[in-house]
Structures are given as structure tokens and as C-alpha cells.
Request: fold
Amino acid sequence: MQQNKDYFVIEGFGGARKLKGKISINGAKNAVLPAMASSIVFKTPFNIKNVPQIEDVKRMSELLKGLKSKVSHKGKRGLTIDTSKANKTVLDKDISKRLRASIILIGPMLSRFGEASFPHPGGCVLGARPIDLFVDGFKKMGASFEEKDGYYHLKTKTGKLHGGEIIFKLQSVTATETFLLAGILAEGKTILHNVALEPEVISLARMLVQFGAKIDGIGTTTLIIEGGEMLSAGENDFYEVIPDRIEAGSLMILGAMASNNLTIENCNPEHLSLPINILRESGANIETGPNFVKIKSDKKLEVDTMDLRTHEYPGFPTDLQAPITVFMTQVCKEGTIFETIFEGRLNYVNDLIRMGADIKMWDAHHISVKGPTLLKGREVEGPDIRAGIAFIMAAIVAEGQSIIHNAYFIDRGYESIEKRLRKIGVKIKRVSN
Ligand code: EPZ
Reply:
């Protein structure tokens, strides 16, 4: 399937605070994708609610259908996935190349079918994105590994994985999710050490327990999974996808730069404690409630210094690194960013510099920002989902017109972004090629 060549055209407000109103947050991309993958360990159809209408959900649906699963829509934001007839064990190459989360399917496929073949997973280019944690972990659970004809082939001798004890050298979100799912049907106990603590991981684990999985240690860095039967859900049972904290965080940062009255609804401020605190320390007037964040910044924010490093949850999320860098160019005299998670996640700054930002890249992990600077509209290419939304934010605060290519990348993680931004006053339109 050819991805679209759409682009966005945005008229900037030159730093004026013109945005106002309410914007509602959708289900989290990084929660719905592992939940969809978990359907492989269900013997009954599995209902998911609050599904965001984003490209990555379509790709994951296509992958599941490629495995002979049935994926049907229930209303605007519901999915029902029935994998009872699933029997294929090879992931579609083109789709897997566009979706890093495709790798999460390997855990449940291996533990249910005893084998799985897949290409090196793609998705956002944020550096090498190795898969050594996955290969090492599956070997510990009894799978053999072979690379042939551009595919990785994992196979078990007995047709099942057996439990194992895995100490992750890094806290990896999708590795944690993949082995959580692998442990559900593995024979015996699986112990995972140094797991990721992202809210999406916790939500997945809690959902699996709700439908019969035996998992201890949820919320700690060690998970213990007792392997057993396939899970089952009643026809009226469902998993409700948690709100997208990265979408909410991106819009909150936008509001702090360009609004004096913006309400972000259907979000979970508890998942954004650190980003909210950083904006408040910058002088932004932010009110939070059980499921909303209200930005009432009525004055120009000025900060002498801001030094930020990205960090696994509950640290500052790497997925908000590009948005907060744009914020820094607007409010900060001297700022630094240390991107600790990915080695290729600062390349977008070159286009921000072309827009007039005063940024120096010291190495693949460190930049410094001088400001505040009035940005100028430019024609730019979003290299990934989160840099794409950051360019939209930069274009809104810049003066003049910007063109942002690779709308598909943004559509991967943000539903109907131009329609929703127009509702709060952004002058944005999509040009479809
Ligand atoms: C998840 O990616 C998210 N994706 C990413 O969001 C997010 O940026 C990332 O976690 C960090 O929070 C999904 O959940 C679908 P990692 P993931 O494994 O799991 C290294 C977005 O925009 N590593 O936690 O792929 C890796 O290189 C996306 O929504 C290995 O070395 O990230 C990185 O340095 C982008 N070997 C670190 O671990 C491995 O086998 C953490 O990456 C696996 C990972």
C-alpha cells in the first residue's frame, strides 16, 4: 500500500497567543498496538474500545489479517479481533518495515504457534533500533534463531516456548510487552527483570490479568508470569485504551506557547507530571483536573536556563523531546537537551535551524538552544511522528507560511490532526497529492 504524499500548509501567528478552546485526546497509539497484538493469546474474540483512528492501527490490523485473524470495527472507535483461525507465522514484510510495534506480535506468535518469521522491524528512524533484547530473550525461552532471505526465523523444538529468567540490559517498552505476552502461553514461569514502567506497559499487564493471565509485580521493575491457557473474554468484555499522554503532552506544550485559554480533555494528567511541572516552572499557568489540563498562560514566558534530559518513565519522555525543544526556542535564553534514549532523534533540529532557531548540535545526544527566537515559516520534512508534530508546533508560532511534508508520519500517531487543530484556531490545511 503506497503511503500518501500529503503535506500540511500552515499560516504562523508570529508568536501571538491565538489558540483557544477545547481539544479532546484519543486513545494512546503505544497502548492500542500492544493490546491488538495481545489478541493472539486470546481463544475468544477480543474487544477494544477508545481506539484512535491512526495509520498505525490500520497497519497492525493488516498484519493481524495477514495472520488469518478477523479484525472488525464496532462503532467509530471499537475493534473486535478474532484470532481463533489464525495460523500463519510470517509477518508481512512491507507492513512490518513501517511499524516498529510489529515486533510485539513475535512473542505471542512464538508461544502459541512455536515459530515466527519477520523482517527487521521498521517504524521511525531514531537510530539503529536493534533487536538484540528480543533475540537473546527468545533464545533463553527455547527458540532457535536464524537469519535468511531478509527474514529472521525463530522456532522452538517442542512447538512451545518454555519459561525463563531474562534480565534486560535496557528498559525497553516493546521488549517488555513482547515477553509479557510470550510468558502467557510459555510452559512454566517467566521472570523479567529491569522492565519498562511506561503507563502503556502497566495498562497492558493489568488488562491481561483482567482476562485471566497470572502476572505478579505489575508496577515494579520485575514481572513474574505464570504460563497457562489462552485467555478468554466475554462478548461484552473489552479493553479501553488509555489516553495518549504524548498527544496530550504535545498539545499542552503548544498551548503554553500559543494560547491563553486551552483545555485538553480526556487525558490523564498523572501520566504527565514531569512535563506539567517543567511548563509550570517556566511560568505557564496550568490547571489540572482528573481528566483535563487547562493552559491559561496570559503572559510571554521567559526562562533564563532550562536543562532537560530524556529518560525512561517516569522521566521526561523522549517522545516529547522534539516538542519541548520548540518550546525552548520560544521561551528560553540558554537551554540544553540530552537525548539519552535514541542516538538518531535530534536530526530534525537542522530544519528548526533553517526556521531561524539558534541551536547547536554537540553530538548525536546533545544540543544547546539559545533564544527566544521568532521563527520564520519554511518548507520542511518531518522525519518521524514526533518531529512531525514539533514542526507543526514550530510553524504555528513562526511568522509566515510553512509547508510540512510527510503528513503520513504525523497521521501514524495523531488522528485527523489538521481538523482538530483548526477547531482551536490553527490556520492549517492538508494538501493531498
Ligand atoms: C517504544 O519504542 C515506543 N514505541 C516509542 O515511541 C518510544 O519512543 C520508546 O518506546 C521509548 O519510550 C512503541 O511503544 C510502539 P525501546 P521501543 O525499546 O520499544 C534500545 C513513538 O513515536 N533497544 O524502549 O522501540 C533502543 O535502541 C515511538 O510513538 C536495544 O538496544 O523503544 C533504545 O535506545 C517512537 N535493543 C532503547 O532500547 C533492543 O532489542 C529504548 O528503546 C531494543 C531496544
About this structure: The first strand starts at residue 7 and ends at 11. Residues 245-258 form the longest helix (14 residues).
